[in-house]
Each structure stands twice: as structure tokens, then as C-alpha cells.
């Protein structure tokens, strides 16, 4: 029933967001997942392309291991921000990525980054990854999208 | 027709929106989803999402800091 609704929306306008996750910084991973989950919640399709430093966050146990993009201060800044996030009851990255998948979001891993950085599929959270791909897949999905972001 | 209750009191962005969507996905046609929360912006944004999804808002109530939105999955 829901799919039927979605299809009628699709026909009226492009209803898809594609996001390149290039940064592995903790705050930017939050941005990508918050925007992605928001878009899914409002009925869009969403693909996240993890590449370069972003791909490192798909390593097993690596999701929240990124530094802050500013004021990291050897981990002190990150510790302070995490404390404030806890106080404000902000959801963990782990919950956000689990929700992202539950709402039908797609996660794609850049295979060139894997080659350059010597990352093997077994190093990554294969339970999260829908596909391994290159720029052609991104462009093709971006052409069908009304929103595309580079984070 | 079932009535599904979702409690997101104390939760902040994007959890109320996400939990609302999760409940609506699981609901069957005609079911009512009642979501209760305290995050002020979500009171404005959940109706935006409901409109984008093509579902129907039945009521929006507020008491103190807590709001309650009833949605019908049409």
C-alpha cells in the first residue's frame, strides 16, 4: 500500500537524494546521517556513497571513531562535544545508521578507495553495505535525484 | 484498525521524525499513529512529512511542553 503511495509521488517529481560522504569527521558523519534519515522520513529514496575518509567509518567498530572537523584538540574537543550531545539526548551514530537501513536507505562503498587504502570487504561492515561501486553508479543515481550533496 | 502509540518525549532531531516514519511504515492502511513528543520543531515538521507522504493529520494537541499528533495512514 505504501509503495503505491510512493510511486504516485515519484511520478509527480524526482524524489531521491544522493549524498557523497567524503569526510570521516564525526560531526560530518552526523550531518550525512541526519539529512539522510530526514529525507527517508519525508518519503524520499536515499543513497549514501562512502568514499575516501568517509569510507574509513564503515570499518568494523569505526563508525564513531572520526575526529571533529574543528576544535578536535587531540580528542579533548570531541570529548566535550560528545558530553554535550549526551546531555541533549542526541541519538548515537549506531542508532542513526540502523534507522537509516530500516527505512530503506542504501549504502554504497567506493571500490577505488578500498584499493588505494588497502581496505578489504571483510574489514568493512558488510551488513550495512548494499553494493561496491564507482563514479558511474553515483552519476547515474544523481541524474535521477532532485537533491545531491557532498559532505 | 489499530491505534499505534509512539513516545518520543525527550528525544531530539531527527529521532521524532524517524520514529514517526518507522511507525507509519509498519502501520496498515486505515491505522492511526499517535505520536507524543517534546521537541518543539518536530511539532511543525512531522505534519510536513505526513503531507509529503500523502497521509492524513487527524489532530494536533499541545499541553505544556508536550505535543500529540494523530495521523491516519490513508
From TrEMBL, chain A:
The chain crosses the membrane at residues 29-55. The keyword Transmembrane helix applies. InterPro entries: DsrE2-like, DsrEFH-like. It holds the Pfam family DrsE_2. It comes from the Archaea. Keywords: Membrane, Transmembrane, Transmembrane helix. The keyword Membrane applies. Gene3D superfamilies: DsrEFH-like (3.40.1260.10). This is DsrE/DsrF-like family protein. It comes from Candidatus Methanofastidiosum methylothiophilum.
UniProtKB/TrEMBL annotation, chain B:
It comes from the Archaea. Residues 6-30 form the UPF0033 domain. PANTHER family: SULFUR CARRIER PROTEIN MJ0990-RELATED, SULFUR CARRIER PROTEIN YEDF-RELATED. This is UPF0033 domain-containing protein.
Amino acid at each position: 500500500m505504501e509503495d503505491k503511495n510512493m510511486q504516485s509521488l515519484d511520478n509527480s517529481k524526482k524524489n531521491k537524494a544522493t549524498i557523497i560522504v567524503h569526510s570521516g569527521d564525526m560531526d560530518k558523519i552526523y550531518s550525512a546521517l541526519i539529512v539522510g534519515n530526514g529525507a527517508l522520513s519525508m518519503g524520499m529514496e536515499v543513497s549514501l556513497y562512502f568514499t575516501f575518509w568517509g569510507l574509513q567509518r564503515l570499518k568494523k567498530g569505526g563508525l564513531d571513531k572520526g575526529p571533529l572537523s574543528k576544535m578536535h584538540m587531540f580528542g579533548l574537543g570531541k570529548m566535550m562535544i560528545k558530553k554535550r550531545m549526551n546531555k541533549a539526548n542526541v541519538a548515537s551514530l549506531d542508532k542513526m545508521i540502523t534507522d537509516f537501513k530500516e527505512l530503506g536507505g542504501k549504502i554504497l562503498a567506493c571500490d577505488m578507495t578500498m584499493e588505494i587504502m588497502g581496505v578489504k570487504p571483510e574489514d568493512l561492515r558488510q551488513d550495512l553495505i548494499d553494493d561496491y561501486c564507482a563514479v558511474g553508479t553515483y552519476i547515474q543515481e544523481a541524474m535521477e535525484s532532485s537533491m545531491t550533496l557532498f559532505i | 484498525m489499530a491505534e499505534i502509540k509512539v513516545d518520543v518525549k525527550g528525544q531530539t532531531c531527527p529521532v521524532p521524525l524517524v520514529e514517526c516514519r518507522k511507525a507509519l511504515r509498519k502501520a496498515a492502511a486505515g491505522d492511526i499513529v499517535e505520536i507524543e513528543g517534546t521537541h518543539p520543531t518536530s511539532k511543525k515538521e512531522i505534519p510536513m512529512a505526513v503531507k509529503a507522504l500523502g497521509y492524513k493529520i487527524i489532530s494536533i494537541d499541545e499541553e505544556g511542553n508536550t505535543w500529540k499528533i494523530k495521523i491516519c495512514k490513508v
